[in-house]
Amino acid sequence: MKYQTIISSCYCGDGSAKLKKAEELAYSYGDQLIAQVDISRQLKTIGELVLSLDNHMAVMDMGKTCTRCAEIPGGGCCSAYMGNENTDALLLLMNILAGIEVRRVCDNGVECCFLGQRGCILLFKPIFCLNYLCHRIQKESDEEQLKNLEKKTGELLTAQSTLEQSLIRFLQSKG
Predict the structure, then answer these.
(1) What residue spans of the chain are helical by DSSP H?
(2) Less packed terminus of the chain by CB within 10 Å, N or C?
(3) Strand-pair partners of 115
(4) 86 vs 10, 113, 120, 126, CA distance in Å?
(5) C-alpha pair distances (Å), 140 with each of 10, 12, 72
(6) Is the pLDDT of residue 74 over 70?
(7) How far is CA 29 from the centre of its chain?
(8) Cβ distance 15 to 104 under 8 Å?
(9) Torsion on CA atoms 107, 109, 114, 118, rounded to nearest 10
């Protein structure tokens, strides 16, 4: 697959189009991708980094902070725009390869389509969703917590980016 074809088919379109493309890629290449030792190892490493970040966020009590914010009118950063613009087919494919049942769970046109009752259903999240630290989080956290959060987020995003490049190389090899 040509690089330009990968870019236009995996990064363009709305959330539904990107999910459909991820499902097509998983159907066509999922077993081959999982059989790649490098890709399987990267998926495992990313899963460990996600767990480490999730544990740190729990220590910071970010779930309560985000829930409180989401309950007020205009609150919350998990918007429909975020779900449509910040996800891409390769990120969704990573989630599928990791065993996540990726599906649209919210279609109210306001919230992210991947936002379930207990938060985001994605294991591997878009860059913006991981990098964004609103003023409430910054205000309710101490400097050391924020530094550790940014470090863990950076490690996770670097690993996700490396996996994304591996997926692109694999798809390019498929002509």
Answers:
(1) 3-11, 15-35, 37-59, 62-70, 80-85, 89-97, 127-131, 135-140, 143-173
(2) C
(3) 120
(4) 12, 11, 13, 6
(5) 37, 36, 17
(6) no
(7) 20
(8) yes
(9) -90
Do the Cβ atoms of 125 and 92 come closer than 8 Å?
A: no
pLDDT tens, residue by residue, 129-154: 888 888 888 888 899 999 999 999 99
Give me 138's structure tokens: 């910054």
| % of the chain at pLDDT higher than 70 | 97
Give the rounded percent of residues in the chain with a pLDDT score beyond 90: 51
For residue 47, with 0-12 CB atoms within 10 Å meaning exposed, 13-18 middle and 19 or more buried, which class applies? middle
Q: For residue 92, give the nearest of 27, 154, 3, 4 by alpha carbon.
A: 27
Are the C-beta atoms of residues 153 and 130 closer than 8 Å to each other? yes
Q: Is 44 exposed, middle or buried (0-12, 13-18, 19+ CB in 10 A)?
A: exposed
Instruction: Record the tokens describing residue 83, joined without a space.
Output: 């779900």
Q: For tokens 């940014």, name the residue.
A: 150
Q: What is the pLDDT of residues 26-47, one digit of tens each?
A: 999 999 999 999 999 999 999 9
- Taking the model in full, what pTM does it have? 0.90
Q: How many residues does the chain have?
A: 175
